[in-house]
Batch of 4 targets.
Target 1
Amino acid sequence: MSVAPDSAPEPLLAKSKTARATIAAMEEILGKQIPVLDGQGFLRVVDYMGDDGAIVQAARVSYGQGTKHTSQDRGLIRYLLRHRHTTPFEMCEIKLHLKMPIFVARQWLRHRTANVNEYSARYSLVPDEIFKAGIQDLAVQSAVNNQGRGETLPAHEATQLTGEMQQAAENAYALYLRLLNENNQRPDQQGVARELARTVLPLATFTEFYWKCDLHNYLHFVSLRADPHAQKEIRVYAETMVEILDKWVPLTAEAWRDYVREALTLSGEERTVLRRLLNGEKVAKSETALSAREWRALGKALGYDPESETYPTA
Amino acid sequence: MSVAPDSAPEPLLAKSKTARATIAAMEEILGKQIPVLDGQGFLRVVDYMGDDGAIVQAARVSYGQGTKHTSQDRGLIRYLLRHRHTTPFEMCEIKLHLKMPIFVARQWLRHRTANVNEYSARYSLVPDEIFKAGIQDLAVQSAVNNQGRGETLPAHEATQLTGEMQQAAENAYALYLRLLNENNQRPDQQGVARELARTVLPLATFTEFYWKCDLHNYLHFVSLRADPHAQKEIRVYAETMVEILDKWVPLTAEAWRDYVREALTLSGEERTVLRRLLNGEKVAKSETALSAREWRALGKALGYDPESETYPTA
Amino acid sequence: MSVAPDSAPEPLLAKSKTARATIAAMEEILGKQIPVLDGQGFLRVVDYMGDDGAIVQAARVSYGQGTKHTSQDRGLIRYLLRHRHTTPFEMCEIKLHLKMPIFVARQWLRHRTANVNEYSARYSLVPDEIFKAGIQDLAVQSAVNNQGRGETLPAHEATQLTGEMQQAAENAYALYLRLLNENNQRPDQQGVARELARTVLPLATFTEFYWKCDLHNYLHFVSLRADPHAQKEIRVYAETMVEILDKWVPLTAEAWRDYVREALTLSGEERTVLRRLLNGEKVAKSETALSAREWRALGKALGYDPESETYPTA
Amino acid sequence: MSVAPDSAPEPLLAKSKTARATIAAMEEILGKQIPVLDGQGFLRVVDYMGDDGAIVQAARVSYGQGTKHTSQDRGLIRYLLRHRHTTPFEMCEIKLHLKMPIFVARQWLRHRTANVNEYSARYSLVPDEIFKAGIQDLAVQSAVNNQGRGETLPAHEATQLTGEMQQAAENAYALYLRLLNENNQRPDQQGVARELARTVLPLATFTEFYWKCDLHNYLHFVSLRADPHAQKEIRVYAETMVEILDKWVPLTAEAWRDYVREALTLSGEERTVLRRLLNGEKVAKSETALSAREWRALGKALGYDPESETYPTA
């Protein structure tokens, strides 16, 4: 995560004194654009409320206890996260300013528990900014993941195709301006209303929005979107959000890694298989009720060859 | 609202007997596509729960009263809606299947209190369906509404421009197929993953989703989206939803028209002006704290010439 | 609103420097208990995010405009609130620490759009704090409002009854301790689990919680709970929240008073009546479709004698 | 789950024909009170929308596929639940009518994603119904669970204490009536307003409400509240809801048992321990970063003696 040298579009507020919980690492990045997607998009922390201490403070109201030594905070936060006591994590809040392609924003805004103010293409002219995929982004449809990508295309094919995509983007934006009759391209004619002209723009067009969210839902968001199954173009934003998490609430970030990101959930049937394996037994797939997909996933998680019909594999 | 003759894409379930509240007018349209946007899109009621009686039933739990005569239901529903006792209206639920352009879906899905399952263009091929604006849709930017449309363009200009829009849509879809390498257009080459190829499609591309919502939020949705300030392409869906409201919960629909759709809200300052007008006084704009926009809106609402500096206007 | 002299139960954090929006009037009250219900309960601002400027900032992202002169902020905020453009108000957040009787908390927590951490009586001992109604609180059931209070009881009756209520509270708390076997009251016996013992405590028992909410929902809350129809014991908290609103977001507070608190909403039928009155006509109740209740409310709002069968009343 | 013989307080609607998904097992219990807490409380299914097929139907819109063989539905539902694809489960809805003590309702209504209409004690007289704990309910505070119960008290102590609790409940209700001046107990005096009189009633007083919820949130609710850590008095309702789940959406119920109820989640550190155990190694607690509590929980889950300092235990 590097901050763009001259990225602040709005003058930073003069520093004020506050009795609110203040985090030095967050103050450092506040208001600065963090480039994403090779600098075509960005993420910017606009405001934040609360730190690890705010989670502990809220939890201790529940438990009817006053403030304790900071040394106990880590244990409490880990306990809360592990046992899905989620409400104390809702006591922290963050506000981001984001710029991303519309096809990413469409996935983003399916998360319903955030507050959003987006740029309106009914009200304002859409700038000439359309996502340019890099040649390393052009990959084939994944053979194992119906939603994802597999190997990248050969460079010469990718170069050809990204060129065509870029030309198409330019054509679309030119038609957009022509419909609006910007620069009086169609002399003596009138422009079409923005709300209709925008419909010719591609899904790769950039948009911007403010997005405000509590920490519990922020964790849920990054758990889903920093996952390898998420589309790469949203994952890079989510990974940046994980880096911000480390600055904002480091104890929570650590607990989230241990208990969510690196966690493994086993079904009832898988637990039965595990018990047998721990007993030193050999287990054949045909003896279990696991589907082929589940059998492979279990083997992978436990460190076996997932193509084997029997676990453990030597 | 006319129902397409052969519109049911899924065989209707055989009729079953139920003790649930059942509404004849809803059963008639259940599962049938109602064409919107000249049949390019549709709306289809997939399921519903509760009727006007369910609202009354819930309200009477609050009031600790048993069932009463149906004749009193109308009065109770009107009372609840007028006084914004919204929770009984949450006791009814509806599920729609919708097909609409992505630029409309983007507005639609900003409403966060509904349940949604949308077609995934990561998982499946996007069909060749892109919204074709009619020549009557091509209107200039409104001079009074920064978000809306004014007069339509002359027919020959509109014909020319819709032709260009349609050609651009065809080009975009052709590039989409080329990227996917459908029909082996790029012989001996591989297709690009769907999640990336789709980014060249325009915002006018159609999408589909299931959308489930309670009646209170349904009313809120149509109040905002069947409003003249809403974009025409979403308004036509919202107007269809008003027609469904009449079938689903006729007493609520009537109360909503009286107390929401046709209601007028006056600010504190406007109430002061109104008192003076009712006293038979003449009121000059300069005597009030109303902004120019507010003054005009008040005059229009009360039946005066909004351009006059003094009310009443003769 | 007076702040208790020595009310801070937690040491205030040392002042830090921040680039976040900071409000002097909020910093002054931060962390300090504001007594409510004669000091039996309290409200305390624990944290806040954003000011009037944050609303403007978010709205201007939607409109695609940069920062403007502060002098235009007031007009924009008024426009947003008047036209129910609610999302920019969601960009501010506040966190309160509250102590109130359970019967008030039950109403409070029906608002679902806030984050909450409440004291757990399963986990901790409930303190000996039960709401004592003052003799001025003992009023008869209202004759006109099925939910509310009318005139206060004669002082000697009220004194007698508040004495009985207090005695009952003491008895209940004594039984609670006895069940828990606090102080070994039941020698050689064991205490009952807290989660069961608490069930004998009255609804007037105090509880505490942290409550975090965005400004849009805060406004909605005070609109409902600072209303004369709300129960007095929640209204006093809501009125304190209105005073905090003035400190937090003064421009929004002013707009809320004009466009919500002092606003009047007229139904379609009432607008018809109003048009006739403005035309100088006399209107008889029997000529309208208004219910008796609606007729009276309209008369009251317009400054007529609500008992008259004809408006205007001389 | 047995249905009370003559429990329907409202006449069942005459059977109607519907094209909506209809479930025979649900129709059988529709409208009938299911007694809970020894018949002191109840749960009643008032309405439902959707079945297992509705989940599949919504998921297949996402995947762009039409209807398939029912035999594939089970696999799809299991896949969705396992991978936390939660939105299709939101496509089913249920409405319950519940009667429970207020201390249970307080826990219940912390779930924010449901629709609720509760009996209003401001508007109506509270009936003389206060939860009577059975002698088997009187248990000591748990030594291991700060929130829960341990062993039951000796019968003679429990009998004594339940007697005192019941007497206290009678006294509280008598004071409530006296405050209201029901039956003119305080001759020539007036009753106190209901909203204030109710404050003397204990938390064990019964309340009633309608509660409507989608299936995803219903599953979340029962996962938390049918858990052994939940208070017994809410757990008995949640267990009844599990039985209803089996009738409503049997494929989902089965998948929920396998992938949620009987699932085990291992943290990153626990996975490391597991890998070593599967390798046939002995692992000492001191070699790991697990807390004492985590070590015991892991041992228990894997079938070892949780008090041992080394796993596996012979």
Target 2
Amino acid sequence: MIKKHYLLSPGPTPIPDKVLSAAAQPIIHHRSKEFSNILKQVMEDLKYVFQTRQDVFVLSSSGTGAMEAAVVNTLSPGDKVITINGGKFGHRWSNICSAYELNVMEIEVEWGEVCSPEYLASALKSNPGTKAVFSTLCETSTGTIYDIQGYAKVVATSATILIVDGISGIGAASCPMDEWNVDVLISGSQKSFMTPPGLSYIAFSDKAWKQVKNSTLPKYYFSANSAKESLSRETTPWTPATSLVIQQQKAFEIIREIGLDNLIKHHRILGNAARAGVKAIGLEMLSKNPGNILTAVKVPEGIDGNKLIKTMQKKYKVYIAGAQSPHTGEFFRIGHLGYSGGFDIITALSGLEMTLMELNYNFKTGQSLSAAQKILKENWS
Amino acid sequence: MIKKHYLLSPGPTPIPDKVLSAAAQPIIHHRSKEFSNILKQVMEDLKYVFQTRQDVFVLSSSGTGAMEAAVVNTLSPGDKVITINGGKFGHRWSNICSAYELNVMEIEVEWGEVCSPEYLASALKSNPGTKAVFSTLCETSTGTIYDIQGYAKVVATSATILIVDGISGIGAASCPMDEWNVDVLISGSQKSFMTPPGLSYIAFSDKAWKQVKNSTLPKYYFSANSAKESLSRETTPWTPATSLVIQQQKAFEIIREIGLDNLIKHHRILGNAARAGVKAIGLEMLSKNPGNILTAVKVPEGIDGNKLIKTMQKKYKVYIAGAQSPHTGEFFRIGHLGYSGGFDIITALSGLEMTLMELNYNFKTGQSLSAAQKILKENWS
């Protein structure tokens, strides 16, 4: 048999052919009018998906670079901050803030659990003078979606700013930056944006820009003021990853055609189908509040989690993701973001069923497929 | 007439078709064995062009990101440093060091001039306790090549480290890192490496690693220790720009086939041809010590420099670069690095001659072409 490869990880995600082939175009100069026009269009499209009237800057880095940009541009040495850590990426906020010697108060949340806005409100109350609250929109390590709207309401009444990692979330989950009063929002090219990894995106609210003015943490490559200043010349301060920007423009053509609301609905259907599928064969979700970006599923008792992932990846070429340290082997993650369709869910579940048969898990085969298929069929329009 | 587009800027440079089309391959996961093998190969190839036995790390950023990485990983607040500033990129070292509140002693060199090793030695003598000297291998804003071997000899006898920006230089100019005792060497994908922009490269000598251990400047995304630690798992700390890494691997296949020595010779021939060409029509080089990466040529008296560049770029579609601020309009730069061939020099000179005719410059047409052609013909093997 020819074994085709299926990428079903929560980033990088599959890319439309039209976007892939755009990278094979000859290189144009990054200071040319031609490239400036592409960059301008991408920045307009970014405003559309961020749902903001603010400039959304294009950084040539992974999402972690944009996270660092959010920290170094808004804060000063010794500033008090609160981070919500319910997984690997929430924890990364704490790590970056600690690297810059900020005064970090971490709200530790068990993997898969959420932090309520009320809890955040009480944490803020007991930590007066907190300059920023850091959260994740969708915690990619657990598949959990956080109540950003709730956090924003809590934070909006104070001088504190709310900084949100929307790397895997934006485009697949609703997070209207301006309407909800998110102060710094970041994302990356390789998730719902249907583009290869290498670009990250960041926007600041008026309230955040005021903090940018007073921020004294050192910065150069990630300086928001440099990015803002270059914008007047329709360019970026440093040579951008031009071919990725060109690809992002092509991907936005597709996203615009679908429409943001439809894209979010699409992800909801995929998420519902994935969850219904795994439940139908007796598996349990890791997350108490799963989003539609990925589905994290607990490895059932008696099954070797590492073997499960390895079998799916190597034998069936269905590239799902395992759990990250310190929970390796305990659960697995099926991505359904970016350029993912209904039959990708069917493929993932079929690969999962074949693997579970091999590992002697006791279940009625085909059940996950028909459960998922039912939801896809009902919503197929 | 169909007006074809020719990219002749000192970065980004033209990319071989084989490298361009590699970006159109479907995305693979960055934590897969398949990608690890590609990354390992690229890191081996980087050692080959850096001429070092040290690890050369792949960063997802422009070259400026690698410059920042060189600073934040080796230094601590208040450290005394010397920067050699003979153009825009030398000046960038000063800017980055100042952004991190280092104690910067800048050797200001006129654009196109060089700094002698003797001058550096005396500057070091009058600044005891200097932690690092920053230089550029090829100053892209002026086309000047610096005496890195000479600087390294001066610095090697002290506790100071030598940090070299080889972004446009490496691969086109000789700079054997280990043999010359360069302590930190950086480069980028979009210059002689025949790959689109978006990746940068950095290596540290044993002496530099010792300074990394003691460095207390804040860092996260650009942390050398994180990169080193991830290497044991054959990966990068953050999601890398996978498609660019795959392209870089393809480009290295071409570079390995040519061989580094031949590649450097090739650039020497192109440089000789370009210089002979412009001299033959009475034009003057900006640089007192021009390298073979680009040729910076003074705009002759009575000619509008901005019009010259605009005409070449817009009318003849020969995309050479102008001079950067504060010397805009005073000279222009013909790039001959990366995937550039002999006839690209002929094209550049022909576009230049046609433009100069249009601007009523007094010269004997065809002279630059035959002068360049003579050198190319003699060396055509």
Target 3
Amino acid sequence: MSTIIFNHQPRIVGWYSVAGKKESQGPLGETFSRIVEDEYFGGKTHEVAERRLFVTAIQGAIQVAGIQPDLVFAGDLLNQIVSSSFAMRDIGLPYVGIYGACSTMALSLINAAAYVDAGLVQSAVAAAGSHFATAERQYRTPLEFGNQRPPSSQWTVTGAGATVLSASKESKIAVTCATIGRVVDFGIKDVNNMGACMAPAAADTLERHFANTHTQPADYDAIFSGDLGQIGEEALRDLLKERGYDLGQKYYDCGKLIYAEEQKVDMGGSGCGCSAVTLNGFILDKFKRGDYHKVLFMATGALLSPTTCFQGESIPGVANAVVIEEVTE
Amino acid sequence: MSTIIFNHQPRIVGWYSVAGKKESQGPLGETFSRIVEDEYFGGKTHEVAERRLFVTAIQGAIQVAGIQPDLVFAGDLLNQIVSSSFAMRDIGLPYVGIYGACSTMALSLINAAAYVDAGLVQSAVAAAGSHFATAERQYRTPLEFGNQRPPSSQWTVTGAGATVLSASKESKIAVTCATIGRVVDFGIKDVNNMGACMAPAAADTLERHFANTHTQPADYDAIFSGDLGQIGEEALRDLLKERGYDLGQKYYDCGKLIYAEEQKVDMGGSGCGCSAVTLNGFILDKFKRGDYHKVLFMATGALLSPTTCFQGESIPGVANAVVIEEVTE
């Protein structure tokens, strides 16, 4: 069984997104709960800023939900997921560190849903985030280096998002099922083309999801991928067409939604924060307003480290999909 | 509720450990399923070797269990947990990446138990591992540098372990409850004294565990910590004594068990692999032989990255505890 059914339909009772200045200037700017214009968020380093984004998102979501959760699932892109771990010093709740690269928002949401669905906890938080400057420093070169960006590159989103799930039935927005990703490697080695690395994994997850749930793309009000960007989105459409699924007009990539073309982000946004702030802003707000009733949210991750790239390894991808829908009871 | 009860008592139906040459020469040498004397495991780099340890442990445990699991939970110490992720290319199963530093074996076991307990999957694998040379390269200096080790340091275990959990009742060894750790920071900044960084978190988790489950140390046949080492073990005993719990003679640290004193490992073993190979060898074998009926297995992690240390941050710790016991039905 590669698609998991949450029979008790854990409810989404709160969400919060915090994003940076560049993100606030994009098409989704109005949908974020909070904007932090200072890229240091009042701290000494960009790493401290990233950590503060996590604390802000998690505390914000908890406040919106108005309940005290039992457990937090969180992850980020930094080595040893230190943004999540260090943020948890301030949160003080039991914590499970999750790593799914840029698929982390979906993966943490699935895990939080699993624990709530099982009745192991009453309530849990799922969170993910990223920061442009910390990702550049770690994966590529520090900003001071003034590196040139090839046109296939993507722009790491500065932002974090958090979702609170609860066993209580006070909300109609539920997490109903999920398809956890397999690691898929098509042998691509271009670190500046993440979309191409992740698209095969996205196709694998979506194909399994549609087959297991006996659904078609048309059964969803919208399908979101996390941060495939322009190249990855096109590759995913092609790969799925070969397998008999037409993603059609209701498929969107968060990485393409989040910035405007004139913002010079090449193929679009990326990073854990990309899908995290889009989910915990634009997408869940649409549920609240009644525009969406059933959405397939799939975040994608490229499973590389600078060491694996230096050692000549290819870049495998993973994609985790979760269904969010309005339920009646 | 900070201790989770697994009412359906997921069963441990298979386990496997693979360890390196140095580990094979220690007191637990006979308990490992397989020894790999070549530190490169036939690969070009130590990183490839670490990945192969994961594949070996996971495939080994699956073979012992004789069932095809639905899902794998795994994590390691390398940046972006690439050992787990890359190993999953060969395993081909859906995969949740877990990061709990050296507490990962307990954390992956808890998550696998949660999914099986919930009926979300029929069977799941939990895995963790580490390699001395990859950890030295990443956290300290490459071996070629010939760095001197301060006496408070610990020796990263080369090895990986995997456990298969199942909803079927064919085994009497079950995972019955777990206490997930909070991030605890006592402000220690010495990267060569991991035991001191982790002991406060271990004390926090054990105290909560004993209180929530209304148990005492004497209620367990044995209590294991993951890799506190000599300093951490003493600190944990002291911290718990202050809180009214005497760990007594049945408390052991995997980091102290795994090497003999003449092996020159300073304060003892460490790394994800330390508790992983001890659990999936020595500890579970004792259950099989009927020597153990109820064990508290707590793995501890230090949540640092070289970047956080360079930036002057302290080193928070986390500890995850899980109860393994023989059940009657």
Target 4
Amino acid sequence: MNSEKTIERLALIGVGLIGGSLVRSLKQAGVVKEVIGVARTRETLQKALNLGVIDRAEAEVEAAVDGADMVVVATPLQAMPPIMSRLDNCLGEHAVVTDVGSVKHYVVTTANLHLSRNFSRFVPGHPVAGRENAGVEASGPDLFRGRTVVLTPVEATDPAATETVATMWRNTGAAVRYLGAEAHDRILAATSHLPHIVAYALVDFLAQQPESDLLFELAAAGFYDFTRIASSDPVMWRDICLTNGDALCAVLEGYRANIDRLLDAVKSANGEALLTCFERSKLSRDTGLMNKTSAEQ
Amino acid sequence: MNSEKTIERLALIGVGLIGGSLVRSLKQAGVVKEVIGVARTRETLQKALNLGVIDRAEAEVEAAVDGADMVVVATPLQAMPPIMSRLDNCLGEHAVVTDVGSVKHYVVTTANLHLSRNFSRFVPGHPVAGRENAGVEASGPDLFRGRTVVLTPVEATDPAATETVATMWRNTGAAVRYLGAEAHDRILAATSHLPHIVAYALVDFLAQQPESDLLFELAAAGFYDFTRIASSDPVMWRDICLTNGDALCAVLEGYRANIDRLLDAVKSANGEALLTCFERSKLSRDTGLMNKTSAEQ
């Protein structure tokens, strides 16, 4: 296993925060020779060229993929089906394909449906990292350092392709972890999708109040930290909700039951129930953070 | 109006994050000559002495208040009634009293009940600032710089006392704002108390899951930013819930209705409803933050 395996030509389909950060990181590590970008708009491609994120821009997937040994699909989830269809007709026979989508069952199903003979060289992936600013202009080479990238290969996936993608991610400074697609989606529903919904619901509730200007003015700095994730890309999050609906509904219902319990405790002035919940919550978070921080060092 | 009016002797009842930060800030500005501290434990008093936060420690409220021209009550809310009772018997006739409690209607009622002839020199106050680490060891002189302090004087409050307390807070770098106690409690229920409940409910939900260790391990860094406020002091937050129950229930019910609407949208795969909510939420937060940042500059 060569941990510094160089990619000769990487085709990046979708040039945004995640895709841009990936190729910046690989370029900085010197493990990619050439990056060809495809994006929805000319403007994005021009920005990516100006920033040196991509070396060449192409308008069509087919031209970008020609001669590529690595293809990374980094678009919103709902843009993937037509892209996969087109990829199936133009991929080189040794090209490895991966994606960065936040919902893996949907991506695996889509790839299985559209990639036919190339499906074995498709390695589903999800870097668990991000920031609220979207777009290639927000990308940077350090976004994945110390983060986890989850790969969810299936039985049909070629182990050599999986290893190639894992090596690529390790070269960004990320740790690679393997999970089944369903387990990934269930876990991310709880740790990422639910918190986003909770934050959107909170900010939206405040925005609907008659005195909302005063509310936002008097909110402490902590409020803006807390709601930072409610400034994430709305289209991306709509797609996540639509493609991971079952797992998200399950955690949303469980969370709502917790809100109901706390509401009952406030109504009945049950100080002991409130204190128990707050103490358990603080302990879990402090412990989780401590373990995480020591694991990342 | 002398904006640098010096406090001769400040009695600090409750030596924690907020009280400690207040006197550190006043000392740094050179606008307090002597600080006498009272706390529940000897250990806290010794720490505060070692850190130079207080100049003298007293075990009893009466001894601390003797000769003080300013008395700051900075304890959890439910500790206030017996303290107010004791203060009423030992306050000097020109001493100004204030507090830093997060729920003002409760504090005004408590003070009105216990302070009798001294009530006119009691100025209810709330610095809208904090951090998740509690205790005098987490205090610092810059906690209130650029923040808002809300004062909620009532009709019986002596305007000169209000001005003395406002000057003290301005000397910490804070802006002072006047509101009625009910308006304060309603607004803070939405912008501070509700977000804390939401965060506690979320972390507690994850902690109850069978695979919670894996959940906390795979949570992105954003999750820990998001849930930072769920590491706040449980006793303080229990007291806030118990003393601002009505306003908190009202916003919790409104928020829950928003969660229900989003749950319905996910269940029925209503992408447009989801997108509308996410876009409105992002716009409100981005606008609120922009206004806030420019106002603080």
